[in-house]
Amino acid sequence: MSNLAPEPEFQQAYNELVSTLESSKLFQVSPELKACLPIVSIPERVIQFRVTWEDDKGVMQVNRGYRVQFNSALGPYKGGLRFHPTVNLSILKFLGFEQIFKNALTGLNMGGGKGGSDFDPKGKSDNEIRRFCYAFMRELSKHIGQFTDVPAGDIGVGGREVGYMFGAYKAYRNQWEGVITGKGGSWGGSLIRPEATGYGLVYYVAHMISYASGGKESFAGKRVAISGSGNVAQYAALKVIELGGKVISLSDSKGALVATGEEGFSEADIELIANIKLERGYLTQLYTAEDSTLPARFKYLEGERPWSHLGKVDVVLPSATQNEVSEQEAKDLIAAGAKFLAEGSNMGSTQEAIDVYEADRVARKAEGLWYGPAKAANCGGVAVSGLEMAQNSQRVNWTSEAVDKELAGIMERCFWNCLNTAKEYYDIAEGELPSLVAGANIAGYIKVARAMHDHGDWW
After folding, report:
1. Which Gene3D superfamilies is this protein grouped with (predicted)?
2. Catalytic-role residue among 114, 246, 339, 447
3. Is 93 an active-site residue?
4. Are 442 and 425 in contact (CB under 8 A)?
């Protein structure tokens, strides 16, 4: 890849996958699968385009738009659209690459892709966002469709943006189809979709806790640190509280809230935070409000992440953005007693942090930190997107109970797939917990590589 511009995020994701595959028995048992590696690592198609739109002052603005259609071996390209000033090709390639194997782990027929723009919706009016979404979809609509590529939301793309883009697609293509997921409930959306990533994350970790404790422990009584305060963090927090755990931290780009006592966040606190975030506000606004009860129960750490300020913690759920746990923060979490860490954010830990987790798991065996990687632990969101696609194809709406049951089943199967694959391709010492990151990488890669072989993509 030396002839390409530097792509650090993509290179990190690629290196993590390759190191796992090469350190396992996979290429000894199935040496032919190695031939797929350089092929699966290059996108099938990268679409880049300009987006011109008019702001409320009548001034023309321009942004870059992207769609990385990475791999369609298992189904239509599937992955979110991100609107954020940091969006570039490296980030979208890393996200799309991870999405290939994440989607494979759901067991559903979905390929991998990702897209978005360096447009920043913060500080924009509804009309400006609508005009941008229509301009963005004017070009993207030429390259997507229910049997080709089905985007979804991501950072900066919520229900409002999805609605505008769906309306634009319908107008440009003159057809109603399930071309984007995360839609409104009255026009093709699925129940449980907003909750899915957070709920699925907690379901996955519940299996980790149960397996590690021989079925003796659950979330009940656990101190759980969460970063972020968007959809993933909010619904993960609510599910933890429902299961008897105590949520002791949340954060956003301005700073972190960390509990000072045993109480943690309540459901009412999460509701207030959700309302603040709906208005694109920050946690500091809630913390400094005159009628706020938070200062008596939490400390606000301006410009900080929560990881080095927690005191005692049992479970850690990074749910904000990529590379949000550093090597030193990983060490601080282990020192604070963390036993389980699973990522609600994509590639939430640096490679150095992952090395710390895995070294602790090997050294201290069942007493060490057990790590659940994003491509497995947070696949619940895209899983329910896949279920939304199924409902759209059938022209039906499932109940929330039915969707939640399917989600729970997908996360359980994903956990056991990761666990059993790690056992199969690695030698596990007595008393040692299998590497879930190794199991996830190998299981996802095998499924995609074999499908590509059957299609004649490599031979």
Report:
1. Glutamate Dehydrogenase, chain A, domain 3, Leucine Dehydrogenase, chain A, domain 1, NAD(P)-binding Rossmann-like Domain
2. 114
3. no
4. yes
Question: What CATH number should be reported for the domain holding residue 309?
Answer: 3.40.50.720
Distance CA 348, CA 353 (A): 10
What proportion of the chain, given as a percentage, has pLDDT over 90? 93
The residue out of 372, 394, 412 marking a domain boundary is 372
- Give the model's pLDDT for residue 5: 79
How wide is the angle at C-alpha 190 spanned by C-alphas 443 and 268, nearest 5°? Answer: 100
**Binding site for substrate: which residues?**
78, 99, 102, 153, 385
pTM of the model: 0.94
Beta-bridge partner residues of 114: 68
* Pair 229, 86 in one domain: no
Q: Are 69 and 43 in contact (CB under 8 A)?
A: yes
Q: Is 171 helix (H, G, I), strand (E, B) or coil?
A: helix
Distance separating alpha carbons of residues 436 and 358, to the nearest angstrom: 10
CB atoms within 10 A of CB 291: 4
pLDDT in tens, 52-82: 999 999 999 999 999 999 999 999 999 999 9
CATH number of the domain at 123, please.
3.40.50.10860
Q: Is residue 101 domain-shared with residue 162, that is, in the same domain?
A: yes
* Residue 236: domain span: 196-372
CA angle 373, 415, 73 (to 5 degrees): 75
Same domain, 128 and 213: no
Any domain includes 16 = no
Tokens describing residue 353? 């942090």
Same domain for 208 and 166: no
Q: Distance between CA 269 and CA 163 in Å, rounded?
A: 28
pLDDT mean across residues, the chain = 96
Sign of dihedral through CA atoms 70, 325, 301, 345? Answer: positive
The answer to whether residue 456 sits within a structural domain is no
Sorted by sequence, the CB contacts under 8 Å of residue 82 that are 6+ apart come out as 91, 92, 95, 114, 115, 116, 117, 154, 155, 156, 157
Torsion angle (degrees, nearest 10) of CA 376, 342, 276, 66: -40
Residue 148 lies in a domain: yes
Residue that finishes a domain, picked among 357, 372, 387: 372
DSSP class of residue 342 equals: E
Which residues make up each annotated binding site? 78, 99, 102, 153, 197, 231, 385
The helix/strand/coil state of 219 is coil
Average pLDDT over residues 85-104: 96
Instruction: Return the beta strands (E) in 214-349 as ranges.
Output: 223-226, 246-252, 255-259, 298-302, 315-317, 340-342
From the annotation, which residues make up the binding site for NAD(+)? 197, 231
* Strand ranges inside 7-59, DSSP E: 45-54
* Overall domain count for the chain: 2
Residue 3 belongs to some domain of the structure? no
